[in-house]
Specification:
- There is one protein chain.
- By secondary structure, this protein is α+β, with helices and mostly antiparallel strands.
- It has two domains: 17-60 and 252-307, no CATH class; 111-246, Alpha-Beta Plaits (2-Layer Sandwich).
- The protein has eleven helices and ten strands.
- It has helices at residues 7-15, 53-63, 68-71, 81-109, 127-142, 175-187, 199-208, 219-227, 229-232, 234-237, 267-280; strands spanning 32-40, 46-52, 114-120, 150-155, 163-169, 193-197, 244-246, 256-265, 289-293, 298-303.
- Helix 4 (81-109) packs antiparallel against helix 8 (219-227) and helix 5 (127-142) packs across helix 6 (175-187).
- The longest helix has 29 residues, at 81-109.
- The chain starts with 6 loop residues before the first helix and ends with a strand.
Length: 307
Amino acid sequence: MNEYGSRQAINAARVRGEVIPDFDDAGFPFSDEYIVRTKRFSDGQQEVVAFSTRVLRHFNEIRLRPRGARGERVAQEGESDADVSVRSDKSLRTSIERSKRMIRQRCKAIGADRMLTFSTRANETRLEVWAKWWDAFRRRMNKLKDFHYVAVLERHTKNRDGWHIHVAVSGRQDWKILRSIWLSVLRDSNTDGATYDSIKDFEKYLVRRQLSGKGRAMRHLIATYIAKYVGKSSDAVGFNKKRYWTSKGIVLPEVVPYAHLGVGSVRGEAIQAAYDCVGANGAHFDSAQLFWNRGIGVFWMATGNTG
């Protein structure tokens, strides 16, 4: 665990009056080097992360492993079927989290502030068919304008045989054109469907979470809201299957270093540096999204627009 051997030994040392560092649940001292990085999107949205250098070392070590050791679905030497199942589940969850991050950041990059839903009467569950339908739809849309989007496929919560697509876009949309093109795509497959504005569902979500705000200031919440759909149907989609589609040409901002806190720094200083990073760009903390993992020493914050 640490040089004291156990948490009981730590407590005993404190009783004796010894000066010892604070330890997290994994037995690592909170005193460490910390790095603070940020991504700033064109409309003022930000994502800031502060993490200890041991986290960086851990993930660098993982990247150096052979790819087969990361997520291969066959038993390796000395592994049982249960070990393979645990590793497969972990790989799937990692894949889902990576997809969520990509969806969230692409929504922010296009300034998504509207949400659409496309459905079909047919209970079609084959991903390749949905991918074909969506490809035909976005091609026809691109003939009319540059159609920037982030689309996520989700299975119905009530009708488990049915699916629909949630789409994040920026700006007002011509519903007549959207509906006409979507129905024309479905007619080619001898079925029909519907389109509707799903921003109302998002507003209900804000009420449940006791969040407030309107318009551009809430874009970072829309990005997180639509990203959550990618994990809801993972059992039906399966591993290594595409769960989302995005338009081409979406440019993500570079990761920019903000601070490197030297040896002896503590988590509170790292979190304060993250807040300073956000504040230096003129962002507001209203409805900011926060995440803190005490066990590994990672703090993440997302804020809305500055303008």
